[in-house]
Amino acid sequence: GAGVSQSPSNKVTEKGKDVELRCDPISGHTALYWYRQSLGQGLEFLIYFQGNSAPDKSGLPSDRFSAERTGGSVSTLTIQRTQQEDSAVYLCASSLSRLAGGPETQYFGPGTRLLVL
Amino acid sequence: DAKTTQPPSMDCAEGRAANLPCNHSTISGNEYVYWYRQIHSQGPQYIIHGLKNNETNEMASLIITEDRKSSTLILPHATLRDTAVYYCIVRGGGGATNKLIFGTGTLLAVQP
């Protein structure tokens, strides 16, 4: 079946511009995550959505970063006034809601490579 | 979530079994062991997970020691396409932090 998809696959922007990154999770997955990966680094958690609950925004690095998830499906990550240090691969993952005490497997999309000039 | 320790790199000959170790000595009773891999320029790919028992699927086998302080991911017949960074992640069950915490992983290089 279809996996997690992200668009665009690559984005080049100028410093100070706003960008929007899109994630389409696997159909039926109630949980959605955004991570970012800077060159040669590990994954850094950004934000987590679970159903209708308030999102966990604890990983967002600054107030220039925000995300929405409309209708419990598609999510958009917005970066305002981009800076060069925002250059990274932005990864989206989705999962089924897990049972209490049970495991949860996250499935990742291919990522959006953002380059801020 | 418990911290994991993995060797930074390993080599394996094509067609041979690749055995990737992971130490998680501070793991607690409700924490699962997950393995993901990341092939260059791609998103992480789920491989397998386990709690106490050994697990096997179409991709790999996971051997967890009886005290659960370490585990080994086994790729039975490594191919060149298995060259990737392999991440061992320990994460709690229900009610625990949802995010995955990726360490530096093990770069597995499969040699022809």
In short:
The complex is a heterodimer of chains A (117) and B (112). By secondary structure, chain A is an all-beta fold.
Protein architecture, described:
The complex is a heterodimer of chains A (117) and B (112). Chain A is mainly β and 117 residues long. In chain A, 0% of the residues lie in helices and 45% in strands. Chain A has no helices and 10 strands. Chain A has strands at residues 5-7, 10-13, 19-24, 31-37, 43-50, 65-69, 75-79, 88-95, 107-108, 112-116. In chain A, strands 2, 4, 5, 8, 9 and 10 form a 6-stranded mixed sheet that branches. A 4-stranded antiparallel sheet of chain A has the order 1-3-7-6, with no helix packed on it. The radius of gyration of chain A is 14 Å and the shape is globular. The relative contact order of chain A is 0.33. Chain B is mainly β and 112 residues long. Chain B has no helices and 9 strands. Chain B has strands at 9-13, 18-23, 31-38, 45-50, 55-56, 61-64, 70-75, 84-92, 106-111. A 5-stranded mixed sheet of chain B has the order 1-9-8-3-4, with no helix packed on it. Chain B has a 4-stranded antiparallel sheet with strand order 2-7-6-5, with no helix packed on it.
| Strand composition percent of chain A | over 45%
Class from helix and strand fractions of chain A: mainly beta
Principal-axes shape call of chain B: globular
The percentage helix of chain B is: under 10%
Query: So how many helices of chain A?
Result: 0
Shape of chain A: globular
> Can you give the mean pLDDT of chain A?
91
The whole-angstrom Rg of chain B is: 13 Å
N-C termini distance of chain A: 37 Å
Q: Give me the number of helical elements of chain B.
A: 0
